[in-house]
Amino acid sequence: MDKFEKIDKEIKGYTQSKQPGSEREMDPKPIAEDEDYQAGGKLKGKVALITGGDSGIGRAVAILYAKEGADVAIGYYDETDDADNTVKRLEEIGVKAKSYAFDLKDVEQCKKLVTDVVTDFGKLNILVNNGGVQFPQEDFLDVTPEQIQTTFSTNIFGMMYLSQAAIPHLSEGDTIINTSSVTAYRGSDTLIDYSATKGAITAFTRSLAQHLAPKKIRVNSVAPGPIYTPLIPATFPAEKVEKHGQETALERRGQPSENAPAYVFLASKDSTYITGQAIHINGGDYISS
């Protein structure tokens, strides 16, 4: 039994009361850092901005970016303890790091975030649009206009606001990486508005990639499946948290550290001929053609 299977069996049913959730409250903690990862300086000299970088997949990506030599700015909503812990870890690795509280739904806050990062770090090379929320409903008729507005404003509108703010600071060889979801490809009967935003992210990625190709700025996405992040206990009832990921071909949930190398690949020179694409990390939850 490997470390991923071992921790999967240790996870029992529990919930959190507020989205997007706190990693500090999770027990056991997600695997954000894989000790077997061998860094190669692939992002040395780069500056990355990662939304939702305080916890979950965003935290794991921030750690690997730091190990690969990038200075890292993380945007987060209000999980200050998680953000502080992540910045502390990045600084231990030896890079410059800073966290910024902001609201993805607010265009002016998105603009200010990018301006502040460029001011504090001197430049911006990698934008990882990773922040998001989800609110399951068993009956689609129970999805309120307010829920739809919140989900779209957070998951796709904010991604567009940040990308617009970042593009003037990006140049040839720089990258944008968007976090989509397996639900964009297979759907979800209880996450209809969320799945719709993830489908929009997939189309946005493909379209923006075409738009920025003449500037040699690449745009790609990662589409995770069931991953053990704070969003899961903050979203689902305890019994679903305990069984999360068992329906996949690998019969377990994934860990944030299993996603992060794909974000390194897409940000580095290893992927110079890849744009407008999605990398699927879902344990066989959905196998695309």
From TrEMBL:
Which molecular function terms from Gene Ontology are attached? diacetyl reductase ((S)-acetoin forming) (NAD+) activity
Instruction: Report whether Oxidoreductase shows up as a keyword of the record.
Output: yes
Q: Which reaction does it catalyse?
A: (S)-acetoin + NAD(+) = diacetyl + NADH + H(+)
Secretion signal span: none
Q: What is its EC number?
A: 1.1.1.304
Q: Which UniProt keywords apply?
A: Oxidoreductase
Report what the protein is called.
Answer: Diacetyl reductase [(S)-acetoin forming]
- Source organism per entry reads Macrococcus lamae
